[in-house]
Design brief:
single chain; 163 residues; alpha/beta; 5 helices; 15% strand; elongated
């Protein structure tokens, strides 16, 4: 049985950037391409996206703004930002507002891109496993609370019967 590929969404208004990421990673990941934020959000709604990688400088909306929107609706999607302009304000905003997992500077080296996307896929798997464990603990806590309530009720019944 082969493991299911992680899905990577690349959002960049430059088609050649989307194409180069697709060509580099398509064997290991399912790569979706969007030319703007609206297309990216639409693809997020239509597909289970595990990793989203977006350019910071795009028309209408910045990458940080897009990642912030996506975080609200898809909290487990691992968010990455890249830009040709490494201004410190973008990086700080990306970390603070979009809760960005990784930041890449254009142009990147292929091995650098492959490594960070693999790390992002592992982070996605970790987040999913953590969410499943948390849900299991919540379910167990609910069962224990129900059991305690039943025992308390039985204690009250026995006290009443004794009086």
């Amino acid at each position: 049985m082969t493991a299911k590929k992680h899905t990577l969404l690349v959002v960049d208004d430059e088609a050649d950037v989307c194409d180069s990421v697709h060509d580099l990673l398509r064997r290991e990941f399912t790569v979706l391409k969007a030319r703007n934020a609206e297309e990216g959000i639409q693809l997020m709604q239509q597909n289970e996206v595990h990793i989203i990688m977006t350019d910071q400088r795009m028309p209408k909306i910045t990458g940080v703004e897009l990642l912030t929107k996506i975080r609200q609706r898809y909290p487990q999607a691992v968010r990455m930002l890249f830009t040709g302009y490494a201004d410190l304000d973008s990086i700080v905003a990306a970390i603070n507002q979009g809760h960005v997992y990784g930041f890449l500077k254009k142009p990147w080296r292929p091995e650098e891109l492959e490594a960070i996307v693999r790390e992002a896929a592992a982070e996605y798997d970790r987040l999913v496993e953590q969410a499943e464990q948390l849900q299991h603990l919540r379910d167990e806590l609910r069962r224990l609370q129900d059991r305690v309530a039943a025992l308390e009720h039985e204690v009250e019944r026995l006290r009443s019967a004794k009086s």
